[in-house]
From TrEMBL:
InterPro entries named among the record's database cross-references: ATP-grasp
Protein name per its UniProtKB record: ATP-grasp domain-containing protein
Record's keyword terms, sorted: ATP-binding, Nucleotide-binding
GO molecular function per UniProt: ATP binding; metal ion binding
Domain of life: Eukaryota
Domain ATP-grasp residues, every copy: 117-318
Length: 383
């Protein structure tokens, strides 16, 4: 994955020896397999409902022991986040390696949408109204979004606003989603406004790096919000409060997805030099809808801060300096943020389809005019 490759390059540029490991379904090599930043690469057994996570965890522990790994940085996807929490516990128990990953209890709490909202509410932070749903008959009278509590790729992108125009349509939609006690959903308050994502590295309860950026439907575009904008500062303040109130001290990646009411979001993006009081007021309009207790792909925005980013991870080691490496980060307590000049990141495969080919198809179908096609092509060139 892009995030793992970005972190591997960061450690490599800082002078570290990097060992890579990933799943390779059907033996199709992942991109990091051939990266010059990775000295050795190992294929891991992928966890599944049938085989569980024992094989994956044992593979990971074996690699760590064999290669004398001092620091394991988890870069899991949504499907293996909880398993990495289990792995972290065993890695630190059976080896001398430190794991930049929460344990199983906190990982699962943050990973599941309903438990994350309940935990956040207990911390006294702002949350959207959220209710657990385990049957088709449960409903709300206000507008809401219905989302699976756990991982379900078939429904992740379904942001249908309920209720639909008629009771019959609403019932049909809920029936299709099929909530049960074994496959629960949440009904979440509808917030009319843009969505934002964040990426945070937390070491011993202290935030080392932070970035916030607008979300896109498929998360194929990343453009950092200015770190001095009121909106970015409010999301950072929210994250600081969250990590300070959570016990035991957090060590891992912490990525929040926020919804912000439209007018407030637009104003806050363009406001700079906000006072502490204004930031605190803005935090009351941030609605976290879910948490990713793992590295976020937005870490690609730190590519120009490789050495400092690597040093922030290394601080978790007992002596702060691995074999043969001296850290160069001037101030270990200084927050690492993307450089102001950092460009946006775009995935060209996605852009070729969505900005070049798909507009032509829509033009041939008569759905759009030539002007819109030219606009899409211009956007592609800009990317």
């Amino acid at each position: 994955m892009s995030k793992g490759l970005t972190l591997a390059r960061a450690f490599y540029r800082a002078g570290h020896r990097v060992i890579g490991a990933d799943f390779e379904p059907y033996y199709v090599p992942v991109s990091g397999h051939f990266s010059k930043s990775i000295e050795k690469f190992f294929r891991l057994e992928k966890p599944s409902q049938k085989t569980g996570s024992a094989g994956y965890i044992q593979d990971l522990v074996s690699v760590i022991k064999k290669e004398g790994v001092e620091l394991w940085v988890s870069c899991s996807g949504v499907a293996s986040a909880v398993e990495d929490g289990e792995a972290a516990e065993l890695v630190e128990k059976e080896t001398g390696c430190k794991a930049v990953q929460y344990g199983p209890t906190l990982t699962e709490t943050l990973h599941e949408k309903h438990s994350f909202i309940e935990h956040t509410k207990k911390l006294g932070l702002n949350v959207p109204t959220t209710r657990l749903v385990t049957s088709e008959t449960e409903a709300l009278t206000e507008k809401y979004i219905m989302k699976p509590v756990g991982m379900d790729d078939t429904l992740r992108a379904d942001m249908t606003l309920l209720p639909l125009p008629t009771i019959k349509e609403t019932e049909a939609h809920v029936r299709r989603m099929n909530p049960t006690p074994f496959r629960p959903f949440v009904l979440q308050q509808f917030i009319s406004g843009p969505e934002y994502c964040t990426h945070t590295l937390v070491i011993n309860g202290e935030i080392k790096c932070f970035v916030a950026c607008p979300s896109s439907d498929l998360l194929m575009h990343y453009i950092a919000l200015p770190t001095n904008s009121a909106l970015s500062q409010a999301m950072y303040a929210y994250t600081v409060e969250y990590t300070q109130k959570t016990t035991p001290k957090m060590t891992g990646h912490f990525s929040l997805d926020f919804l912000v009411p439209g007018p407030i979001a637009r104003n806050a993006e363009q406001t700079f030099g906000a006072s502490d009081e204004e930031i605190q007021g803005l935090m009351k309009h941030l609605y976290p809808i879910e948490c990713n207790p793992r590295a976020h792909t937005a870490v690609v925005l730190f590519s120009d801060e490789s050495e400092d980013l690597a040093d922030a991870y290394v601080e978790y080691l007992p002596d702060h300096e691995p074999k043969g490496i001296s850290t160069t980060h001037s101030d270990p307590h200084e927050l690492i943020v993307p450089a102001p000049s950092i460009p946006g990141y775009y995935w060209i495969n996605h852009d070729i389809v969505s900005l070049l080919l798909f507009p032509i198809l829509r033009l041939l179908r008569g759905e759009i005019g030539i002007t819109e096609v030219v606009e899409r092509w211009t956007t592609f060139v800009e990317h």
